[in-house]
Design goal:
By secondary structure, the chain is mainly alpha-helical. The protein has 29 helices and 9 strands. A 5-stranded parallel sheet has the order 1-3-2-4-5. Strand 4, helix 24 and strand 5 form a beta-alpha-beta unit. The radius of gyration is 30 Å and the shape is elongated. Bound molecules: iron/sulfur cluster (2 copies). The site of one iron/sulfur cluster (SF4) has 14 residues, from helix 11 and helix 15.
C-alpha cells in the first residue's frame, strides 16, 4: 500500500509537470500567425506513415538510418513495458500475460528490440566521441545533451532487462524473453528486493526522461510526428511554394518576418522539432563553400528566440530587454539570409520535414520591403525589373529578337516556321502549346541559342506553337526569391491578365524557375496552367517518334540537375532519357538527382556577388570536370551561365563545353 501511495505521488507529480511543460510550449505557438494546415488529410496521413513511422528520409543514409530506425521502433514496442510497469505500481501483480499468444509476441519483440537498442546506444555513444561525422560535431552543451539522452535510453533498457531477468530467476511468468533467459542463465538465484530496485530505477529513469524531453533537442520525439503531418503540402510534395502577401489588406502592417511573432505557428513547431542532426547543413552549398549561412542554425535560432519571447508574450510582459531585440539582425544576420540559393537540399534531407526556405524568404521580405536593406547589386536588378520588366537592362521590344533571328535562319535553310505570335492570332485556342521563352531565353546571348534550338525541335516535330513576344514579362521569380514580393506581384498580375486574355492553357518553357513559378505559384493568383519543362516535352516528342535522332553523339556527357527542375519538381529522368536518345555516353557526377549540388544561382543569387568563401559554381564545375565528360549538359539558363563561367575560370573552355539538352538533341537529328 505504502509503495502504491509513494509511486502515485511520484507518478502524478511527474506527469503533471510534463503536461505543464507541454501546455507552455503549445501556448508559445500562439504568439505566431495562424495558418491552415488541415487540408489534404489522407495524403498527409500517408506521408506521415512513410516519413515518421517508416523513416524513409532517414534511410537515405543507410547506417545512421538503420540505427535510428532500431531506436525508434524499439521504443514503440518498449512502451508496453513502461505501461506494464506503471500499472504494476498501483497493482503489484499486474502483467499483460492475459493477452496469451499476443503477450508472447510482445515480450519477444521487447527483448529483441531492447537488445538492439542497447547495442545501438553503445554504438551511437562511441560515434559521438570517436570518428564523429562532421554533421554531428556540435558544441559542448549539445554534446552533453546528446550523451545524457543516450545514457538515459541505455538505462531504460538495462533496468528493463534487470526486471525480466529477476522475474525469471524468482520463477515468475515473463512471456517469451529469450535474451533475458540467456542472461538469467549466468545467475543462480534472484530476489524480490533486487527486482524492486530494478523496477524503481526503471520507473524513475522513464519519468525523468519524459520530463527532460521538452527542454532538450529530443523534443522531436514528441513533435516529429505532428510536424511531419503538418508539413508543407503543396504539390509536388514537399513543394516549397511561396505564399503571396495580400497588399490590399490594410490591416497588414509588417511585410515579411522581422521577429518570431511574424512567423507562422508551423515555423515555430519546426524550431521545436529540429533534432540538430546537421543533415541540412551537410548538404548546404552555401555552408559547404564557406558562407555564414547554416540552415540548422536558422532553425535553432528560431527556436531560441521563441523560447525567450514565448514566455514573455504568453505572460503579457510588456517591457523586457528581450523584447527590444528582433530575430532578424539580433539572431540571424542579413549575410546569412542573402547566402541562400533556395536550392532545397536542406528541406530534402531534413528527416522531420522542416522548411528552412520559407522563413528565409520571409526574412528577406522584411529586409527589402520594410527596411530597404539589401546588397548593392540588387539596386540594379530591381531598377531593371521596374523599367524593363526583366532583371536585365534590355528593353521589352528586344524580347522579339530571337524570333526574328529564328525566322531568318529558317528562311535561309528553306525550312517551314511553325512559330506564331499569339497576339496576331488573338487566341491560343488553335495552338498545341505556348512557348514561354523567359527573360534569359530572350535576352541572354548564349541562352538565345537554346531558345532557338528548342524552337527548331518544335518545328521538326511539326508542333503548332505560339509565343507572347514582347507581351511576356518576367514571371516574378527573381523578385519573389529576393524578397521583393510587391514587385513580383506586379509582373504576376500583368502576366496572368495576358495569359487569360489569350486563353492560354498549355505552356512549355526552357527555364525551370519560370516553370516552377507558372506551374506551382500562379494558381494562387487566379490561373491554373498546364506547364511543362522543355526537357519533358522533348522526351515525349522522342518517345512519340516525332523527333528521330539520326546520328549518335558518341561523347561523354554529364548532366547537371537544376534544383528547381529536380528537387522542386521531381524531373530527373526526362533530361537523361532525351540525352540517351541522342546516343551520348551519360556519366553521373558524385552528387546527382535529388542529392545534386546547386550551381549557386537560385533564389536570385544569379544577380549577387559571392564575397565569402569559395564560389558555389566553381565547386560544382570541379565536380563535373572530375567525371572526364567533354560536355556538361544543363536544362536551365542560370545553371548554364554558372557552369560556363566555372569552366572558363578553370581554363577548360577549349576542352569542355556546356550545352543545353535541346542543343544536344538538335545536333543528333
Ligand atoms: S536552400 Fe540550399 S542554400 Fe538555402 S539553406 Fe537550404 S541548402 Fe542552404
Ligand atoms: S533542420 Fe532538419 S536536417 Fe537540419 S538539423 Fe534540424 S532536424 Fe536535422
Amino acid at each position: 500500500m505504502l509503495r502504491a501511495i509513494l509511486f502515485g505521488l511520484i507518478f502524478f507529480s511527474a506527469t503533471g509537470f510534463f503536461i505543464y511543460s507541454i501546455k507552455n510550449f503549445l501556448s508559445y505557438l500562439k504568439i505566431a500567425k495562424p495558418e491552415n494546415r488541415f487540408y489534404e488529410i489522407p495524403k498527409r496521413l500517408k506521408n506521415t506513415f512513410e516519413i515518421a513511422f517508416l523513416q524513409t528520409k532517414l534511410l537515405r543514409s543507410k547506417l545512421a538510418g538503420i540505427l535510428h530506425l532500431c531506436i525508434y521502433w524499439g521504443f514503440v514496442v518498449l512502451l508496453f513495458v513502461v505501461l506494464e510497469s506503471i500499472i504494476e505500481g498501483f497493482f503489484p501483480d499486474f502483467t499483460f500475460a492475459f493477452l496469451g499468444p499476443v503477450y508472447s509476441i510482445l515480450t519477444f519483440l521487447q527483448d529483441f528490440f531492447g537488445a538492439l537498442v542497447l547495442v545501438t546506444v553503445i554504438f551511437s555513444l562511441i560515434r559521438r566521441y570517436v570518428g564523429t561525422p562532421k554533421r554531428l560535431q556540435v558544441d559542448k552543451a549539445a554534446k552533453i545533451d546528446a550523451t545524457f539522452i543516450l545514457v538515459m535510453i541505455g538505462l531504460v533498457m538495462i533496468t528493463m532487462f534487470g526486471m525480466s531477468v529477476e522475474k525469471i530467476l524468482i520463477g515468475q511468468s515473463v512471456g517469451y524473453r529469450p535474451v533475458s533467459a540467456f542472461i538469467a542463465g549466468f545467475f543462480s538465484s534472484g530476489s524480490h528486493t533486487v527486482y524492486e530496485i530494478f523496477w524503481w530505477a526503471h520507473i524513475l529513469v522513464v519519468l525523468l526522461f519524459m520530463n527532460y524531453l521538452p527542454y532538450s533537442k529530443h523534443f522531436h520525439v514528441l513533435s516529429s510526428v505532428p510536424n511531419t503531418f503538418f508539413s508543407n503540402y503543396e504539390i509536388p510534395y514537399p513543394g516549397i511554394v511561396l505564399k503571396p502577401i495580400n497588399f490590399e489588406d490594410e490591416s497588414i502592417v509588417q511585410y515579411g518576418v522581422k521577429d518570431v511573432e511574424d512567423l507562422t505557428w508551423k515555423n515555430l513547431l519546426d524550431g521545436y522539432t529540429c533534432t540538430e542532426c546537421g543533415r541540412c547543413t551537410s548538404v548546404c552549398p552555401a555552408n559547404l563553400t564557406g558562407k555564414l549561412l547554416d540552415p540548422k542554425l536558422i532553425v535553432t535560432k528560431i527556436r531560441k528566440r521563441t523560447m525567450e519571447v514565448g514566455p514573455l508574450v504568453a505572460n503579457k510582459v510588456e517591457s523586457d530587454p528581450v523584447l527590444d531585440k528582433n530575430l532578424v539582425h539580433d539572431y540571424i544576420t542579413p549575410q546569412e539570409l542573402w547566402a541562400c540559393t533556395t536550392c532545397m537540399a536542406c528541406v530534402q534531407e531534413c528527416p522531420v520535414m522542416i522548411d528552412h526556405i520559407t522563413p528565409i524568404i520571409d526574412m528577406r521580405r522584411d529586409l527589402v520591403m520594410m527596411e530597404s536593406e539589401f546588397p548593392n547589386e540588387l539596386n540594379t536588378v530591381f531598377r531593371n525589373l521596374e523599367n524593363n520588366e526583366s532583371p536585365w537592362a534590355f528593353g521589352a521590344e528586344q524580347r522579339n529578337d530571337w524570333i526574328d533571328e529564328l525566322s531568318e535562319e529558317l528562311a535561309k535553310e528553306g525550312k517551314e516556321n511553325h512559330l506564331r505570335k499569339v497576339s496576331n492570332l488573338g487566341t491560343a485556342d488553335d495552338l498545341d502549346i505556348v512557348f514561354w521563352s523567359g527573360c534569359a531565353g530572350a535576352f541572354d546571348k548564349r541562352y538565345r541559342n537554346v531558345t532557338k534550338s528548342f524552337a527548331q525541335l518544335l518545328n521538326h516535330a511539326g508542333v503548332k506553337y505560339g509565343v507572347l513576344g514582347s507581351e511576356e514579362k518576367c514571371t516574378g521569380d527573381p523578385a519573389r526569391r529576393l524578397g521583393n514580393e510587391f514587385l513580383a506581384q506586379t509582373f504576376i498580375q500583368q502576366n496572368v491578365e495576358t495569359l487569360k486574355k489569350y486563353n492560354v492553357k498549355k505552356v512549355v518553357t526552357a527555364c525551370p524557375h519560370c516553370m516552377h513559378t507558372l506551374k506551382n505559384e500562379y494558381n494562387k493568383f487566379g490561373i491554373d496552367l498546364d506547364v511543362t519543362h522543355h526537357t519533358e516535352y522533348i522526351d515525349n516528342l522522342l518517345k512519340e517518334k516525332k523527333l528521330q535522332p539520326k546520328k549518335e553523339i558518341k561523347e561523354k556527357v554529364t548532366y547537371h540537375d537544376s534544383c528547381y527542375l529536380g528537387r522542386y519538381n521531381h524531373i530527373y529522368n526526362s533530361p537523361r532519357e532525351s540525352l540517351e536518345s541522342a546516343g551520348v555516353d551519360l556519366v553521373e557526377m558524385a552528387r546527382s538527382k535529388d542529392k545534386g549540388f546547386c550551381c549557386g544561382a537560385g533564389g536570385g543569387r544569379m544577380f549577387l556577388e559571392e564575397h565569402e568563401g569559395k564560389r558555389v559554381n566553381i565547386e560544382r564545375t570541379e565536380e563535373a570536370l572530375k567525371t572526364g565528360a567533354k560536355t556538361i549538359a544543363t536544362a536551365c539558363p542560370f545553371c548554364m551561365t554558372m557552369l560556363t563561367d566555372g569552366v572558363k575560370e578553370k581554363e577548360k573552355s577549349d576542352e569542355v563545353k556546356v550545352k543545353d539538352v535541346a542543343e544536344i538533341v538538335l545536333e543528333s537529328l
